[in-house]
Amino acid sequence: MTVTATAATVSDFYYGAVTPVAAYLMACLGAALGLRCTTRSLRRPQHRARWLALGAVSIGCGIWTMHFIAMIGFSVEGALVNYDTTKTILSLFVAIAVVAIGVFLVGYRGGSPLNLAVAGTVTGLGVAAMHYLGMAAIHTNGTLHYDTLTVLLSIVIAVGAATAALWAAVSIHALWASLGASLVMGVAVTGMHYTGMAAVSVHVTNLAGASQSSADLVAFLLVMLAGPLVVLLVAAVIVMFDPDMMIGEAEAKMMEPVAPLFGGDSVFPPKQPAQSAQAAQPSQGHTSW
Questions:
Q1: Would the CA dihedral through 142, 148, 154, 159 be positive or negative?
Q2: What secondary structure letter does DSSP report for 137?
Q3: How far apart (Å, rounded) are the C-alpha atoms in residues 26 and 60?
Q4: Do the Cβ atoms of 54 and 245 come closer than 8 Å?
Q5: What tens digit of pLDDT does each residue of 24-45 get?
Q6: Are 152 and 125 in contact (CB under 8 A)?
Q7: Coil, strand or helix: which one is 203?
Q8: What average pLDDT does this structure show over 57-78?
Q9: C-alpha to C-alpha distances, 82 to 20, 87, 127, 228, nearest whole angstrom
Q10: Which of 168, 180, 205, 278 has the lowest CB atom count within 10 Å?
Q11: Cα(253)–Cα(29) distance, rounded to whole angstroms?
């Protein structure tokens, strides 16, 4: 029997705008948490590794979650799409590892142009590797083909997005500025994903009569997403309830020392006793904080 392969209609928006919007929000969340953790690491150098690690995990989980939320909307006409569990999980660890390399490089060696270029290139190539490893996990009754130029463009976008993210991590510390930067980074990361998806074409055999979208596929991806989503939630709680993270630099200089949620001594300098005649007088029943 001769089996022929024909080009299938591929869509990245099977559920409309739901998946790209949700994917974008996850990318923004991971970026925002990563930026705030990096800011924290600079203010608490004695615990820099902890905060950089949490920032790398947040950004890596945000990127990976963005990718697979977007993949829920991926459909191939005339074919069922499934994923290899091992490769899917491996792509998550690749995302976290490559982001960690970049974050630790700029966290310890600074944001010089050369260091940013090296860290951004390594991280960007790693993010692209995560994307295409996730694509390699796809099982369907056909073969995936990629347009070379579009793939190269997606890699360039990934490197540019990673470099910009690392620059923002060491250069932008104000809360609202970092939130704005995370929105821009979300556009870049999500844009890289959909550029990479634009490179994909699928040739399926004439043996399958099924089409997207099975409940089993969505259930599998939701199970895969559960872990990273919990990690992002925990990171968000740590960031939100750590006082040094949610205030501006001017306010930080005015605060009393406090015990941080994530360990270590406060970087806020204690207030100096007031040099006034009133302060020199004995005080009855007054306790100094």
A1: positive
A2: T
A3: 11
A4: no
A5: 999 999 999 998 888 888 777 8
A6: no
A7: strand
A8: 90
A9: 20, 12, 22, 20
A10: 278
A11: 27
Q: Residue 92 corresponds to which tokens in the numbers above?
A: 């998550």
**Are residues 264 and 40 in contact, defined by beta-carbon separation less than 8 angstroms?**
no
Please state the length of the chain. Answer: 289
Q: What pLDDT does residue 110 have? A: 83
Q: Structure tokens of 33?
A: 């948490």
How far apart are the C-alpha atoms of 122 and 258, rounded to whole Å? 37
Backbone angles phi, psi at 85, to 5 degrees: -65, -45
Joined together, the tokens standing for residue 288 give: 């100094």
Structure tokens, 106: 């700029």
- List, as one string, the DSSP characters of 2-13: ---EEEPPEES-
50: tokens are: 């902890």
What local confidence, expressed as pLDDT, does residue 275 receive?
43
Q: Which two tokens stand for residue 101?
A: 């390399």
For 270, list phi and psi in degrees, rounded to 5: -65, 145
Contact 133, 96 (CB under 8 A): no
